[in-house]
Prior knowledge:
Elements: E1 2-6, H1 10-19, E2 24-26, H2 29-34, H3 40-53, E3 57-61, H4 67-80, E4 84-89, H5 92-103, E5 108-113, H6 116-124, E6 129-132, H7 134-139, H8 144-158, E7 163-166, H9 172-181, E8 185-188, H10 190-194, H11 200-216
Parallel strand pairs: 1-2, 1-8, 2-3, 3-4, 4-5, 5-6, 6-7, 7-8
Helix pairs in contact: 4-5, 6-8, 8-9
SN-glycerol-3-phosphate (G3P) binds next to helix 7.
Amino acid sequence: xxxxxxxxxxxxxxxxxxxxxxxxxxxxxxxxxxxxxxxxxxxxxxxxxxxxxxxxxxxxxxxxxxxxxxxxxxxxxxxxxxxxxxxxxxxxxxxxxxxxxxxxxxxxxxxxxxxxxxxxxxxxxxxxxxxxxxxxxxxxxxxxxxxxxxxxxxxxxxxxxxxxxxxxxxxxxxxxxxxxxxxxxxxxxxxxxxxxxxxxxxxxxxxxxxxxxxxxx
Length: 217
Ligand code: G3P
């Protein structure tokens, strides 16, 4: 399972990278705005800064909602750095854009996916990644993990190569359950990744080992 961090915060990206288990970064317009990155020039520079910190794929989202605009923006984003993956919303023009970028050999991440049907369409259009938003489904009394399970089933039925990128991951158990269900990738906050470390018996056991070692010396 690949681990992506879902943020535009450079310090958090550096910290996740320093753990040695980071495979990429996802961003979106809201995450960029949260870091105060505004204006096209600053946004493009920020993507390059992120690419220079991590080794893996970095998702950069288009703002246009028409095919022509998505192609123009996506091509410019892809030219920024070889690690850039163009993030395209799951709308009709987006499906056409996914196919365009597939034919052009440019990696894509189809975002704002909330149903198996949308995920099927993204795979048919040749998306590199599909991003089901599990946390936002949970927020709406719908089990986000069930969507991961169902997309896995459909993709395996037809050996689609599109990778399931569990997105809108909010906490550590989302990560663990996505791994159980066979999501190819998860993207979440640093806290969800670092939560995997925690177990009180590890802390108690280590304290005991160190105390016993001290007694014997
Ligand atoms: O990866 C998608 C993500 O950025 C959305 O997360 O927590 O805003 O639902 P959230």
